[in-house]
Design a protein that fits this description.
Blueprint (H helix, E strand, L loop, with lengths): L1 H10 L40 H14 L6 E6 L6 H12 L5 E7 L2 E2 L2 E2 H5 L4 H7 L3 E6 L3 H13 L5 E6 L22 H11 L1
Parallel strand pairs: 1-2, 2-6, 5-6
Antiparallel strand pairs: 3-4
Helix pairs in contact: 2-3
């Protein structure tokens, strides 16, 4: 997700587009996890997995105290939600009826070290979130209309936080990358980039 964030920030004028070519190189501000010390417009570093939801809930509570209509959206990896802090935060948000926070789970079933089911199975994932008092919305994360509908449903939900579970395919559209844990953190070779771009064209 970090390269997408960096690209969006460059597109919005925070940094020169040319700097994107330094992604994950020594000395680059663009590392695998965004760092608030180097990236403009960030409010916090959440590279320590599991901390982002707590931060988002705090921001949502601050907005509520300020009587602001602002909402906090937190993107979570499925491997990330194996962290205990996620579930402490989920319990807190439900108990305090923080209905202006939305957790968006990218549920592609692959994490850094392999398949989620082989490391620590999450199923039944939707029921876990429901048992913590969250409104759950499951949808196809590759279907734009479904994504828009999920955001609208979350925004309309009152009295409880929402968990949007986006069922996705890691590497979708590139045959040799689809559902392949290898590409979680490994950059493709020049030949693989060329092949991938042909498949995506």
């Amino acid at each position: 997700a970090a390269p997408v964030l960096y690209s969006a920030m460059a597109e919005c004028g925070y940094t020169p587009v040319e700097e994107l070519k330094t992604l994950r190189r020594l000395g680059s501000i663009y590392q695998g996890h965004p760092d608030v010390r180097f990236i403009p417009a960030l409010e916090a570093s959440t590279g320590s997995l599991g901390q982002g939801l707590s931060l988002g809930i705090g921001m949502a509570l601050a907005a509520r105290l300020d009587k602001s209509p602002a909402r906090a959206y937190v993107i979570l990896g499925d491997g990330e939600i194996q962290e205990g802090q996620i579930w402490e935060a989920a319990m807190f948000a439900s108990y305090h009826k923080v209905d202006n926070v939305v957790a968006i789970v990218d549920y592609n079933k692959i994490q850094l070290d392999g398949f989620v089911k082989d490391i620590m199975e999450l199923e039944p994932l939707a029921e876990k979130w429901r048992s913590f008092g969250w409104h759950v919305i499951e949808f196809d994360g590759h279907d734009i209309a479904a994504v828009q509908g999920a955001f609208a449903e979350a925004a309309a939900t009152k009295g409880k936080p929402s968990a949007m579970i986006a069922h996705t395919v890691k590497g979708k559209g590139v045959s040799f990358m689809e559902n392949n844990p290898k590409y979680h953190g490994v950059a493709p070779s020049a030949a693989e980039v060329e092949a991938a771009l042909k498949e995506l064209a």
